[in-house]
Design a protein that fits this description.
Blueprint lengths: L5 E2 L2 H12 L2 E5 L3 E6 L2 E10 H5 L8
Parallel strand pairs: 1-4
Antiparallel strand pairs: 2-3, 3-4
Length: 62
C-alpha cells in the first residue's frame, strides 16, 4: 500500500509519527525522512516537505 504524506513541518511530523507508531528514523535528508518499525524494518513511513514536493524532488506519481 502506498500512502503519500506531504507535510509542512518534517521534524514535527517525524516526532509525531515516531511517538504514535513507535517507529525510528532510518534515513534523514532533511526534506524527506523515512521511519521504520524496529521489529519489522520492512514497515516504513516517509514524510516529505511540501516545498520539496512542489520543487519536483518528490514526484507526484509516487
Amino acid at each position: 500500500m502506498t500512502v503519500r504524506r506531504i507535510v509542512p513541518d518534517v521534524p514535527a511530523s517525524v516526532e509525531f509519527y515516531s511517538g504514535l507508531l513507535g517507529m525510528e528514523p532510518v534515513m534523514d535528508h532533511g526534506w524527506i525522512v523515512t521511519l521504520a518499525d524496529p521489529g519489522d524494518p520492512a514497515r516504513r513511513l516517509s514524510v516529505a516537505s511540501r516545498d520539496a514536493w512542489r520543487a519536483g524532488l518528490w514526484p507526484s506519481d509516487h
